[in-house]
């Protein structure tokens, strides 16, 4: 069955990653990163069905070479925490042949990426189904080394995208640009430096700082001249702005377009090949399905789970599946309890109590998730401190390495031109070269230790997208609570003439419903069940208020 999956992530130096290493892994290639001198050999990697580089029209022809492309990316970025590449990972319909999958993904890349100015390096992977030790299995679940007998049901593509657009000369554009905050009449406008001359002909003028009494103000030169003011700064009023092309690539709108486009093109390919399958890029909530989607595992988490090690993403997915089963089962049991009542007033009461019980269950989960989000956000703050310290240390080491490497090159050059008869000087230079090489190796060792320590500190990091998943779940639950509340009060409105009788029935049956709901929550959350959260959830639930009279107006007023 065709499935929908599309995730986007950033490959950056702040996580100790490089675009060269990522490209080597995804393509099964051997590449050397010129930025740090490290070689990444993944030539033995299997199950790579296709790799290809696609370029925009203005990209250099040399970028069709993988090493040239990603080293150009690495060398263009000077910062130790630079964002190097964007990766889009998509699930491919297994109903299509490799040829059809390749044609589909190339069309998708052309429509969404290369036509927008991105250089693209993509690879199609299709690893076999394996057991807990990573050994391939056949259709009967037996181990096999015969590719013809192995099960393949996870074709997917890794699409690596460059982060910078190119100019017409095939040069990388800057990620940000200087903008002048210009004035025309009573309007102020941010104008890129490259566009100022054109804007100037249209009446826009730069602003400079002037002193009026003890105050400093920004004025155009014309305005200042009329007031005979003296300029106190030569620098015009300006700000740095993100390159608008990059800003568009980074936007949520672009992500939405990429997701929608993949679903549309994928469905068209399935129809063109007479395959009765379709995928939907929308969330379960958008589709009207009372169910929460699982999170994408990722390669490392997937393999760890296969080997019997639990991961945070795996735990999240298990919890999501458990919550979905709980809600479905709980709603079914509530429905059966309501259906047991035969007399009309008892039916109404059962419906009201059933709605209230569902509300409490949703409220309890929402409160529990909100507490988990707060805890995760605090952990992320701690991780940010660790990451900042790591980035600072790596930046210092990188700077020191650059200095020592430069010094080493100079000493080697000096040794080459040194008179062969200057034995003492040659000896001193060789000793200095040896010491410098030791210093360089020491820095490499120190960098490796810092990286290992950093990874150890973040053995089970909290991922922002997981927090976002929880927040979406909270929003979904909040929406469900609102629906229940509306239905509850509509039912009270319909039966406002019998409020006293319903209140009496509530007194008789309330403990039974609350015991049932609490029991189901305890069964679901087990040791994590919290009595205080239960009380808070119960206090939030809609209820017929303790007021006399049958007017719904009074009831709603009391409720508020």
What attributes characterize this protein structure?
five-stranded antiparallel β-sheet, 560 residues, single chain, alpha+beta, 15 helices, BirA Bifunctional Protein, domain 2, 13% strand, extended, 53% helix
Describe the model:
The protein has three domains: 6-172 and 254-272, BirA Bifunctional Protein, domain 2 (2-Layer Sandwich); 176-242, no CATH class; 321-560, no CATH class. 53% of the residues lie in helices and 13% in strands. The chain has helices spanning 19-27, 66-76, 98-112, 196-201, 221-226, 244-249, 252-272, 299-306, 312-340, 344-417, 423-457, 464-494, 499-525, 531-540, 552-559; strands at 6-12, 30-32, 39-41, 48-54, 83-91, 120-125, 156-162, 176-184, 187-192, 207-212, 215-220, 238-242. A hairpin with a 6-residue loop joins strand 2 and strand 3 (39-41). Helix 9 packs antiparallel against helix 10 (344-417) and helix 10 packs antiparallel against helix 12. The longest helix has 74 residues, at 344-417.
């Amino acid at each position: 069955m065709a499935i929908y999956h599309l995730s986007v992530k950033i490959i950056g130096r702040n996580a100790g990653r490089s675009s060269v290493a990522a490209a080597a892994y995804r393509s099964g290639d051997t590449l050397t990163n010129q930025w740090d001198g490290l070689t990444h050999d993944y030539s033995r990697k299997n199950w790579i069905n296709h790799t290809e580089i696609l370029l925009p029209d203005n990209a250099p022809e040399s970028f069709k070479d993988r090493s040239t492309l990603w080293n150009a990316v690495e060398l263009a970025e000077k910062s130790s925490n630079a964002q190097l590449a964007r990766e889009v990972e998509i699930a491919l319909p297994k109903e299509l042949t490799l040829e059809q999958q390749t044609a589909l993904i190339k069309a998708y890349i052309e429509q969404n990426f290369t036509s927008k100015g991105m250089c693209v390096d993509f690879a199609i992977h299709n690893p076999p189904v394996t057991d807990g030790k990573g050994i391939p299995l056949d259709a009967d679940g037996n181990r096999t080394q015969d590719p013809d007998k192995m099960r393949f049901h996870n074709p997917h593509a890794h699409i690596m995208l460059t982060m910078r657009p190119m100019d017409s000369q095939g040069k990388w554009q800057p990620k940000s640009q200087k903008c002048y905050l210009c004035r025309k009449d009573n309007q102020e406008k941010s104008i890129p430096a490259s566009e100022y001359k054109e804007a100037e002909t249209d009446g826009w003028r730069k602003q400079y700082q002037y002193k009026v009494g003890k105050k400093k103000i920004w004025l155009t030169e014309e305005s200042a001249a009329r007031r005979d003011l003296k300029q106190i700064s030569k620098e015009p009023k300006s700000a740095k702005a993100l390159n608008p092309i990059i800003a568009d690539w980074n936007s949520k709108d672009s992500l939405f377009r990429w997701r929608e486009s993949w679903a549309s093109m994928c469905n068209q390919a399935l129809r063109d090949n007479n395959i009765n399958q379709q995928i939907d890029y929308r969330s379960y909530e958008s589709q009207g399905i009372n169910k929460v989607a699982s999170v994408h595992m990722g390669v490392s988490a997937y393999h760890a789970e296969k080997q019997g090690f639990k991961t945070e993403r795996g735990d999240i997915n298990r919890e999501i599946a458990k919550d979905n089963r709980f809600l479905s089962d709980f709603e079914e049991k509530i429905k059966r309890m309501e259906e047991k009542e035969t007399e009309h007033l008892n039916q109404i009461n059962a419906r009201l109590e059933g709605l209230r019980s569902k509300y409490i269950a949703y409220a309890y989960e929402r409160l529990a998730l909100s507490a988990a989000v707060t805890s995760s956000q605090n952990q992320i703050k701690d991780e940010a401190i660790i990451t900042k310290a790591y980035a600072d240390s790596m930046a210092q080491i990188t700077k020191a390495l650059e200095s020592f490497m430069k010094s080493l090159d100079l000493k080697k050059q000096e040794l080459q031109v040194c008179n062969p008869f200057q034995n003492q000087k040659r000896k001193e230079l060789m000793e200095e070269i040896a010491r410098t090489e030791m210093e360089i190796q020491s820095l490499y060792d120190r960098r490796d230790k810092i990286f290992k320590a950093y990874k150890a500190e973040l053995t089970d990091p909290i991922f922002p997208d997981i927090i976002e998943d929880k927040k979406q779940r909270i929003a979904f639950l909040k929406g469900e609570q609102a629906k229940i509340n509306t239905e509850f009060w509509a039912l009270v409105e319909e039966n406002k003439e019998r409020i006293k009788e319903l209140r009496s029935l509530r007194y008789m049956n309330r403990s039974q419903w609350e015991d049932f709901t609490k029991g189901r929550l305890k069964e679901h959350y087990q040791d994590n069940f919290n009595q205080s959260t239960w009380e808070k959830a119960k206090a939030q639930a809609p209820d017929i208020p303790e007021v006399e009279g049958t007017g719904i107006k009074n009831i709603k007023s009391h409720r508020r």
